[in-house]
Amino acid sequence: MARKVVTISTDDTLSTVEDIMTLGGVRHIPVVRSGVLVGVVSQRDLLRASLSNLTAFGSEQRRAFLQVVEIKRVMSSPPITIDPDASPEEAALMMAERKIGCLPVVERGALVGMLTETDLLRYFAGQIR
Fold it and tell me: Strand 8-9 and strand 28-33: pairing?
């Protein structure tokens, strides 16, 4: 699980998310409002928003579109979360059943980390050795 997690606000735009994902090499970002986790935005959400609205436009028009769309319009909400004491098996099962690529880790209402498919793959690959 990553403990240092970049978050975004519901008022941020898709272009901000795209920049963070590209520069940071991340595929999921927790969305907060007044410090409270309210959703998650993923590369899939970004792609879905772009494709549904911009299939006939070029990159400049796409970027202009992304600069005006707020995250709250495309994020997955409410977020599906997990407790820090949950086992890797529980997390993997939850992600597989819900068909999601990450789980915000929440303790007493506060975001403490982010667990991704890659984290679980690394964990289980280490168990095989």
Answer: parallel
3-state secondary structure 65-115: HHHHCEHHHCCECCCCCECCCCCHHHHHHHHHHHCCCEEEEEECCEEEEEE
Which CB contacts under 8 angstroms, 24+ apart, belong to 102-110? 102/27, 102/28, 102/40, 102/42, 104/5, 104/30, 104/37, 104/40, 104/79, 105/1, 105/81, 106/37, 106/81, 106/82, 107/83, 109/36
DSSP 1: -
pLDDT tens digits, one per residue of 30-63: 999 988 999 999 988 887 776 555 455 556 665 6
| β-pair partners for 103 | 115
At position 57, the amino acid (one-letter code) is: F
